[in-house]
Specification:
Structural class: mainly alpha
Distance between the termini: 21 Å
Helix content: 55-70%
Order of helices and strands: HHHHHHHHHHHHHHHHH
Bound molecules: protoporphyrin IX containing FE, copper (II) ion
Shape: globular
Largest sheet: none
Number of strands: 0
C-alpha cells in the first residue's frame, strides 16, 4: 500500500489558509462545516450545562429568570439551527454523496462553498445577537411574545436564522441535482446506498420546507415593526404563527433524523456482514417520512384554538407517520437477525440509536393521543421525548457515522477502546439525563421554569448527574479523533473490510476521488456474494474485493 505522505490527497493538496477558505472541493467544505458545527455544539452544550446546574436545586439561585430564559432559548436555537440541521448533511453528506454516486464533486461546487459562507454569516449574526443582549422567546419564537412583548433583541437573531436558511436550501438543491444527474454508469436508483436515499429525502424537505420558515421569520420581523400579521392588538392572529412555524419545524425534525437513519442503514449491514433486509422498503420509507412529515404539524397545536375535528385528523396522521419509521427499525433488526454481528464502535453507536430512537418514537405516539397530550403538553415529558429523538436518535447516528467514516475522512485509525467507552458513557449519560424527565413531566413539572417545587428535586439531580456523564462522553471523541490525526495508524482503503464505493478509493481520498470513473455492476450490500468470493471463511473483505 502506498504511504499516505507520498500521494496527493484532498488534505495535502494545498496548505494555505486561502486554499481552505476558497476551496470548492466537497471534502474540504465538509471539514469546514465539521469544525464550525463542532464549535456550535460546544457553545450549545455550555448553555445546556448552565440550565442543568440551575435545575440542581428548586429555587432559582444560579441564574435569574431572565438569564434562564435566554439560556434555554439560545441552547435550543444553537443546537437546532446551527448544529443539528446542518450536522450530517453538511459534513458526512457533503463528504460522501459525491463519492457514493461515483462523481468527482457535487453538481455545483461553488454553490456548495457559498452555502458554507451563508451559514457562517448567519451564525455570526446569531453570536453577535447573543453577545448584545440575547433572546428570551424560546427557540420557537412564539407570537405574540416574540412580536409584542419580548424586550430582547428579536430582529437580529431572526435575521441570522433567515440567512442561515438559505444555506440549507442550497445544500439540499445541490444534493438533489447531484443524485439525479451525476450517478456513475450502472448506478441505477435502486443500487444507490441507503445513505444517499436518506440524503435525497432530506434534501426534498430542506428545499420545500425552509422557505416557509424563512418567510415566517420575516413576518415576525415585519410584525415587530408594526405590521399586525400575528399581533392581535393590530388585528393579527398569534396562532397563525404556530401553524406556519410547525409547518416547517415538524418536517425539520425529519431533516435531523432522516440522515441519521441513512447512517444506520449503512452501519448495520456493514457490521452484520449481511445484505440489508428490505432495501426497497427502507428507501421508500424515507420518501414516505418526507412526504407525510409535512401533514402532521397540527399535533403541536392540540391545546390551541384548533378544532376538535382538525385535531383528530392530525392525531391519525401522526400515527401514520410512525409507520415508515417502524418499518426501518424492523428492517434493521431483521438485518441483524442471524447475521455475524461484530461490535466495533460505530455498531455500538448504531445499536444505541435503535434503542433510544424507539423510546423517542413511541413516546411521540403518547403525545399524539389527544387526551394524554392535554396532560403532558409543555411539561418535561415533551422535553424528554424530543431529546430522545434529536440527541438519542440524531446525534447517536451522527456519532455512528463519524466513527464509521473517520478513517476514510482522515486516513487514520482511531483507538477502539476509548471509542467504545465513549459510546457507553453517552448511552448511560443520555438515559440518566433524559429518562427522569419523562417521570418529572408526567408528574407535572412544566418546562421552561427555573424555579420548581422541591418534590421534583431528586429527578432533577439525577438528570444533572446524567448530563455530566453525557458531557464527558461527548468530549472524548474530540480527544481521540485529534489524537488519531497525529498518532493514528494509517487506515488503508478499507479498514473495516466492508462494501461500498467509498471504501474502494484512497484514505484520505484524492482531490478528484476516483482515478477513473467507476462502473457499477452489482447491488449494494452484497455481502453473501462477497463471502462466496472469499471462500466464505472470514466474511471480511480485503480492499480489492470491496467493489459495489
Ligand atoms: C443536539 C443536541 C440537543 C438539541 C438539539 C437540544 C434541543 C433542545 C431544545 C429544542 C430545547 C427546548 C428549548 C426551549 O424550551 O425553548 C432544549 C431544552 C433543554 N435541553 Fe436540550 N438539546 C440538545 C442537547 C442537550 C443536552 C446535551 C442537554 C443536557 C446535558 C440538554 C438539556 C436541555 C435542558 C435542560 C433544556 C431545558 C428545557 C426547558 O427548561 O424547557 N440538551 N433542548
Ligand atoms: Cu411535530
Amino acid at each position: 500500500m502506498e504511504a499516505t505522505q507520498d500521494r496527493v490527497t484532498y488534505i495535502n493538496a494545498g496548505h494555505t489558509v486561502r486554499s481552505w477558505l476558497l476551496t470548492i472541493d466537497h471534502k474540504r467544505i465538509a471539514l469546514l462545516y465539521l469544525v464550525s458545527i463542532t464549535f456550535m455544539f460546544l457553545l450549545g452544550g455550555m448553555m445546556a450545562g448552565a440550565i442543568r446546574l440551575e435545575l440542581l436545586t428548586p429555587p432559582g439561585d444560579l441564574l435569574d429568570s431572565d438569564t434562564y430564559n435566554k439560556a434555554f432559548t439560545l441552547h435550543g436555537i444553537i443546537m437546532i439551527f446551527f448544529f443539528l440541521i446542518p450536522s450530517i448533511p453538511a459534513t458526512l453528506g457533503n463528504f460522501l454523496v459525491p463519492i457514493m454516486v461515483g462523481a468527482k464533486d457535487l453538481a455545483f461546487p461553488k454553490i456548495n462553498l457559498l452555502s458554507w459562507y451563508i451559514y457562517i454569516i448567519g451564525a455570526t449574526i446569531g453570536i453577535i445577537a447573543t453577545l448584545t443582549g440575547g433572546l428570551d422567546t424560546g427557540w420557537t419564537l412564539y407570537t405574540p411574545y416574540s412580536t409584542a412583548f419580548a424586550t430582547t433583541n428579536v430582529i437580529l437573531p431572526a435575521t441570522g436564522l433567515f440567512i442561515t436558511g438559505f444555506s440549507s436550501i442550497l445544500t439540499g438543491f445541490n444534493f438533489i441535482v447531484t443524485i439525479h444527474k451525476m450517478r456513475a454508469p450502472g448506478l441505477t436508483w435502486f443500487r444507490l446506498p441507503l445513505f444517499v436515499w436518506a440524503q435525497y429525502a432530506t434534501s426534498l424537505v430542506m428545499v420545500l420546507g425552509t422557505p416557509v420558515i424563512a418567510i415566517t421569520i420575516l413576518m415576525v420581523i415585519l410584525d415587530r415593526c408594526g405590521f399586525g400579521i400575528f399581533d392581535p392588538k393590530a388585528g393579527g392572529d398569534p396562532v397563525l404563527f404556530q401553524h406556519l412555524f410547525w409547518f416547517y419545524s415538524h418536517p425539520a425534525v425529519y431533516i435531523m433524523i432522516l440522515p441519521a437513519m441513512g447512517v444506520i442503514s449503512e452501519v448495520i449491514p456493514a457490521f452484520t456482514r449481511k445484505k440489508i433486509f428490505g432495501y426497497g422498503f427502507i428507501a421508500a420509507s424515507s420518501l414516505a417520512i418526507a412526504i407525510i412529515g409535512f401533514l402532521v404539524w397540527g399535533h403541536h397545536l392540540f391545546t390551541t384554538t384548533q378544532s376538535m375535528y382538525a385535531a383528530t385528523v392530525f392525531s391519525v396522521l401522526t400515527f401514520a407517520v410512525a409507520i415508515p419509521s417502524a418499518v426501518k427499525v424492523f428492517n434493521w433488526a431483521a438485518t441483524m437477525y442471524k447475521g455475524s454481528v461484530s461490535f466495533e464502535s460505530p455498531m455500538i453507536f448504531a445499536i444505541g440509536f435503535m434503542g433510544l430512537f424507539l423510546i423517542g418514537g413511541l413516546t411521540g405516539l403518547f403525545l399524539a393521543i389527544l387526551g394524554l397530550d392535554l396532560h403532558v403538553q409543555d411539561t418535561y415529558f415533551v422535553v424528554a421525548h424530543f431529546h430522545y429523538i434529536m440527541v438519542g436518535g440524531a446525534i447517536m447516528g451522527y456519532m455512528a457515522g463519524l466513527h464509521y467514516w473517520w478513517p476514510k475522512i482522515s486516513g487514520k485509525k482511531f483507538p477502539e477502546v476509548p471509542a467504545k467507552v465513549a459510546a457507553l458513557l453517552i448511552f448511560i449519560g443520555f438515559n440518566g439525563t433524559f429518562f427522569p424527565q419523562f417521570i418529572a413531566g408526567y408528574a407535572g413539572m412544566p418546562r421552561r421554569y427555573h424555579y420548581y417545587p422541591p418534590e421534583y428535586q431528586v429527578l432533577n439531580v439525577l438528570s444533572t448527574m446524567g448530563a455530566g456523564i453525557l458531557g464527558i462522553g461527548y468530549l472524548m471523541p474530540l480527544c481521540y479523533f485529534m489524537w488519531s490525526l497525529k498518532y493514528g495508524e494509517d487506515a488503508g482503503k478499507n479498514p473495516w473490510g466492508v462494501l461500498g464505493l467509498e471504501w474502494t478509493i484512497d484514505s484520505p481520498p484524492h482531490p478528484h476521488n476516483f482515478h477513473t470513473t467507476p462502473i457499477i455492476t452489482s447491488d449494494p450490500y452484497d455481502y453473501p456474494e462477497m463471502a462466496e468470493a472469499l471462500g466464505a471463511h472470514t466474511g471480511h473483505a480485503p480492499a480489492e474485493v470491496a467493489h459495489v
